[in-house]
Amino acid sequence: MNKKKMIRLTALVGVATATGVVAEANQAHAATTTTTETTNQTTNASVESTQAAVDAAQSTFDTAQTSVDSAQANVTSASNNVTSASAALSSAIANKEAATSENIASATSAVSSQAVVVASASQAVSEQAGVVSAAASVQASAQAEATSASASLSSSSANVASATSALSAAEAALTSDQSTAANNLSAAESAASSASAAVSSGQAAVDNAQAAVASAQAIVDAVAEVQSSDVINMSVAYITALKNYLANPSSANAAALQEVAKGADYVKELQQKFKSDASLDVVVDPSDPTVQEALSVYAVNLINHLRNQYGLTTAFGASANANVAAIDFVKKYYDDEDWNIFGTTGSDGKGHNKNGLDAYADQLNTSIAEDAGSGLTTWVNGKATMATTTLHNLLYAVYSDIATMLFDDGGTNNWSHAQSIFEDGTILGTGGFNNVYLGVAFDKYGYAHYELYNATEGNQLGNNAYSLDVQTAAQALLTNAQASLASAKASLQRMTTNLMVAKAAVVAAQNQLAALENSSANDLVAVTKARTQLASAETSYQTALATYKQKEEALKKAGDNLAAAQASLEADQATLATAKAKLAELEETVANLTNADQLLAAAQAAYEQAVANLTTATGNLGAAQVDLAKAESQLALAEDTAEQAKVRAAIAAQVDQQLNGSTANDRQSAGQDATSLKTNGRALTATVATASATKQKQGANQGRLPQTGNDDQEASAMALVGLGMLGLTTGLYGYKKKKITE
């Protein structure tokens, strides 16, 4: 319902009531038998009574509100019914206008035609249902046959599995022991073969070790003999001429040295002094460490013998580290770079690889000098030919190269090779050669390289030094070879024992296999029987598999036929449903046209009834609204009465509190004020306002109300009444009833 707000301006009524309260209060204070408590109880009872009236009025108001809400809903429903009835009436009027004989005849004819369509569709559905039933029967039969074929296939498959298992067991029984024995025999034969190969290898190692011993013995014998006999002795005249030249390499000194040396003829004479011994014709590898040791020791002993003749006390040394460095240098800077130092004729070579020497000196952080000789190559008619690499050839090459460096080194070389042999602390003017170690290596062209290194603790080129006692070194070589031979013979003995054991194991395995082969006849019969049963089971399985596939195909075809028949039936049923719906629609049209008068009358009656119902509902709503307004008025009056009772109770309490401490004059003055208030409410309001202002001024000056004197008592009484009335008027004029909302 609409929100309402009521404001009641009842100041005069309130003032009169307040005046009565003041009078009652004065009377109460005048009477000795009436106490302040009695007055308060009376006013409080009045408040409770008026609040009960408010609650009752509120309940009546709520009931009226509910009635209005219900009546409003009825009006809305009746209005909707009128709208529907009006639409139905309009449709009935239109139907009445269309209900001509021609339209009725046409609609009736359409119904007849559609009935024929429905009958035809119904017949089609019945026939197709028969087709579906027959297809379902065929499908069920095919399903039963397929199920039976599947069971038969499973049984046949189980038979095959069982026969396969039986055959596997029979074959395992037949072959298990034989296989184990055969494996044992194979393993034994393999072990015997390995042992035999080990024996052969051990025998080869023994043979090689024996050959090494023979070779070492030959080296011991030959090198000791050669070292003692193959020395180069220089004449005093040569030594003097060489010293003069090295001290002052003038042309005159060079010519004098050349004259004393006698050139190539004297070299040939020295070379012919080299002792040739058949024991030296042992084929060796020039890069073999043992051979390298023998060559470097041989070369250093030749050079040191010459240095002793020259008067030098410092000797060159030989070491394994210097030999390794020489081999590494020659491979890296001559072989790998295809650097042919002499060429094919002796005059077309590249000479020393100086860049390589510089790089290798930096790598080792030392000084290096290199001498080179024809080595394994002899010069015949200006052409170089390679000799066989026997120990004789190698020793002769070293002897010949050193001899040539001494006596056939004139021309452009300016006796540089001789200088490298005889200088002390420097070589060819280069310092840093205080501890010279010699390394010997042969390049891939057969030329010999003599690398002179200054050994230090940093480059360790003097480490693993060789003994320059040739006999001792050769004897150590022989001792090592003999130890290797003894070790090889011990290994051969162990391998021979292992071979004997392996051959015995082969014989035992062969005997075991033969025994098993003689006792396997029964197992072979069982295997043959199992194979026959497996073949029969596999044949039955293939037959069952073919039948199963045939029945599965028939089942699939029957299923497809049934699905097609069901689809056709569903289509026919949909056609029939459509035809029936159209027939019902046509029949309804005929019925409406035929009964147009009755339908119109019924629609008219329904419309009129709906209008009447709306009128009734509207009247009921009006009556409910009147009751609601009346209940609202009563609720407002009850609330006003309750508010006045509360004000009276409040004023009574204030007056009683104030009068309990005042004199009879105060009460008389209060009574006079009440009389004045009763006769002139507005004037009292103005007086109260003045008194209130005076009171505030006095309070500001004195801080409290005066307690003695007639004037003070009168002012106090007036102030009390004024405060009560000001509160009352403010409460009444400012009071607004609470909003009542739906």
Automatic annotation (TrEMBL):
Domain of life of the organism encoding this protein: Bacteria
SUPFAM superfamilies with a match to the protein in the record: Tropomyosin
Compositional bias annotation for Polar residues: 695-710
Coiled coil (residue ranges): 478-519, 548-648
InterPro entries xrefs: LPXTG_anchor, Surf_Exclu_SEC10/PgrA
PROSITE patterns reported in the protein's UniProt record: GRAM_POS_ANCHORING (PS50847)
One Pfam family, short name: Gram_pos_anchor
Keywords attached to this entry: Cell wall, Coiled coil, Peptidoglycan-anchor, Secreted, Signal
Residues of the signal peptide: 1-30
Disordered: annotated segments: 660-679, 692-711
The Gram-positive cocci surface proteins LPxTG domain, residue ranges: 705-742
Keyword Transmembrane: no
Name of the protein: Chromosome partition protein Smc
